[in-house]
């Protein structure tokens, strides 16, 4: 079998060879997209990470492809319909670092509410020790609204307990036993937006959650609240964030993910595809505007990025590929 791994850092290669045994391997540090294709393409299995874009056109370039193992929980960078049409099995990593992402999300919350980044940047850039504009708020006693109480959302509940915060949550499939055990309550999304001092998103990106936070319901948000997104960019309508910030509804936002994130990372490639639709270009311009706002923190999809989490991701991916090769695929995306 010929197995290709893209977006590797280098340390993974020996582990892959040792764990998967006598196969023919191709290793690349580059992402895989329509415009970044390897010279060799006769692979049976490919493994990609978040910056690759597996479109229908990309799939057409790999005639022998039978399996894709993405080293991520999300799979919106893969055209699942096109993969199914070609009989290609797609697997993902359903859980690798719930605590990893939750810890990062709380890091963003602390940065927003206590203006930590702003204070550090002030010292570095101006050498000023002035406290003007650096007064924050405490988390104790504040209400944290968690949208999505899966693995990461549950970790958020536990961390919030340590800060003595009140927790409310919204989820289409409430876990009443968890709520009783941890002492929080489920409310509707509308009630969560109107009651939470801090809103943190931890739901998957699906058709149902596309623009879950939007121009219509941003007005429901409690005035002065903070919005944190470490899930997927498309869960929030970008224009809604801008309006919320400009109108003073939101005191600030911390975004580890952005709508049209892939295009922001490689704008030249996006423009060269000939698919520069006006609405997508508008979102990209809005993202640039967000990056410049003083009360907005934007990080480069970094919440997952701990050494421990990456090792767990690799181990699960290896198990996924091993299962696929044995005819017993694991963690298949339906």
TrEMBL record:
The UniProt keywords, alphabetically, are:
NAD, Oxidoreductase
Matching InterPro entries, A to Z? D-isomer_2_OHA_DH_cat_dom, D-isomer_DH_CS, D-isomer_DH_NAD-bd, D-LDH-like, NAD(P)-bd_dom_sf
User: What terms describe the molecular function in GO for this protein?
Assistant: D-lactate dehydrogenase (NAD+) activity; NAD binding
Record-linked PROSITE patterns: D_2_HYDROXYACID_DH_2, D_2_HYDROXYACID_DH_3
Q: Which residues form the D-isomer specific 2-hydroxyacid dehydrogenase catalytic domain?
A: 24-333
Annotated PANTHER family: 2-HYDROXYACID DEHYDROGENASE HOMOLOG 1-RELATED
Instruction: Give the record's family classification.
Output: Belongs to the D-isomer specific 2-hydroxyacid dehydrogenase family.
Q: What is this protein called?
A: Hydroxyacid dehydrogenase
Task: Please tell me the species this chain comes from.
Answer: Candidatus Wildermuthbacteria bacterium RIFCSPLOWO2_02_FULL_47_9c
Q: What is the lineage of its organism?
A: Bacteria, Candidatus Wildermuthiibacteriota
